[in-house]
Structure formats: structure tokens, C-alpha cells
């Protein structure tokens, strides 16, 4: 394993990268701008990216010429493929302790963490307590649900909502995302019942 600085023009994105990372590029670029390029891109011996496609896009956005890379020349081809998947998957398994997160964010005086993808519910959790009310038009038999999702989770949910979009036109109201999410869950529940 070797660490070296490589021109970003010499790096090659993996052609079958299964991660959809465009939604995270701005936040990663903001992180690099604020803190520097602290997490190297992992590449194979041919300069093909194993982990770090989002960091590459962020570096390109920022106009960087070179970035630190770790050459994973100690891994065979199967290990590289598996590591590429594992590196993306394991991040989805971790969750936040929202009380500890709120405390950490509250102690920051000079840095706005929204630039790194944190949403308002994470930054200002007190705004979403039991007193939180739906707008008048959404009351009655309706409920509003708020979720905090990792970018990877949000991408999958958006994809699912877009996929069923055409099949929900007969619902007859304007709650497009809610109807689509309901349809995704309904179809999943039907499949589970049939097993």
C-alpha cells in the first residue's frame, strides 16, 4: 500500500460504479474547502478509483490539480470489487445519536454545518418537538412524518418515488410524494404477505 499525490486528470472513475453520488458532491466540496483534502482517494495500480468518486468530483469542482491517493496494490481484483461495495455499504449501517449530535452542533460557533448536508431538523431539533403542527391544509385525517436520512438513503427513496410516479395518478390529490411513498410501501407489504 502506497500513499502518493496524483494529478486528478490521471485518475479513472470505475466504469461500473453502482453509487449515485451527485447529491453529495457539494457537501464534500464544502468540507474540502473548509478543512482541506484530508481523506485520500483509494485507487488500484491502474489509477482506477476503488473508493472516492465523490471526492474526485468535489476536487474537480474546486479546481484542484492533485489529490492524495492510497494505491491499494495489496488487494487482488476480487478484494478490490468487494472493498468498493463494502466502503459504500458500511456507511449506511451507522446511525446518529441525535442528542449527542445536537450537543456537538450547538457547541460550534464559527462553522455552519448545513453546508455539509445536515438538515434543519438536525441543526435545530427543538423546532420539531411535540408542539410542531401541520399547516391548516394538511390537518384532519392526515399526518406529517419527518425523517432524517443519509444522502444514500434519500437517493434510494427518491428513486423509488420517481419509479412509481406514473402509477399513482389515480389518487386524485396533489400529495404526490406522499402518495408515491405509500405506493412503494404498499407494494412491498403485498410482496411480504405473499411469501
Q: In a nutshell, what does this entry contain?
A:
This protein is α+β, with helices and mostly antiparallel strands and 195 residues long.
Question: What are the main properties of this structure?
Answer:
4-stranded mixed β-sheet, 4 strands, 7 helices, single chain, Conserved hypothetical protein from pyrococcus furiosus pfu- 392566-001, ParB domain, globular, alpha+beta, 195 residues, 3 domains
Detailed description of the structure:
The chain has 7 helices and 4 strands. With 195 residues, it is of the alpha+beta class. The protein has 3 domains: 2-93, Conserved hypothetical protein from pyrococcus furiosus pfu- 392566-001, ParB domain; 96-136, no CATH class; 149-195, no CATH class. A 4-stranded mixed beta sheet has the order 1-4-2-3. A hairpin with a 5-residue loop joins strand 2 (41-43) and strand 3. Helix 6 (151-164) packs across helix 7. It is globular, with a radius of gyration of 21 Å. The protein starts with a strand and ends with a helix.
